[in-house]
Amino acid sequence: MAKDKRHVTAAVRFLRERKVEFTEHPYQYVERGGTSTFAKQYHVDEQMVIKTLIMEDETGRPAIVLMHGNKEVSTKELARILGVKKVVPSANPQKHSGYMIGGTSPFGTRKAMPVYMEESLLDLPKIYINGGRRGLLIAMDPHDIVRTLYAKLVRVGI
Question: Are 121 and 71 in contact (CB under 8 A)?
C-alpha cells in the first residue's frame, strides 16, 4: 500500500529525519479559529495546543515564540529578555517561516530562527503543535522541542 503523502510537510520531514516520535491529528481548519478550534474538535485543554508565533525586533530580526493556546505573549517582557527595544508580531511571517498563517510550524522553517518557548510547556505530558499546514497538528513530547530546536526557555505568557 502506498504511503499517504498528504501530511508530508517540511515540518513532518524535519521530525522524521530526527527520529522524533509524534502522532498526526488532522482537523477541520477554520479561518481565524485559532487554537480553540482544534481544542474543541479533539476535546483537549487549549493550554496543550501551542501557538507558533513569528515575532520581529525593531531591526526586523525574526524569532519564533511558542506559547500556550490560551495565553498571550508579553512583548515587553520578551523584548527585555532579548535585550532589544521592541518586539512585535511579524507583518509577514510566511516570508521567514515558509508557512502560511494558520499553518506555521517551528520545524523545517525556511530561515533558521532562534526559538523561545514558554517554560511551563515542559510541565505538560504532551502538546499539540502545527504540523506545517492548515488543518494538521502533531502531538509530541514538549521536551523534544528543546532537543531538536535548541529552544530557549522563557516566561513571557500573560
Answer: no
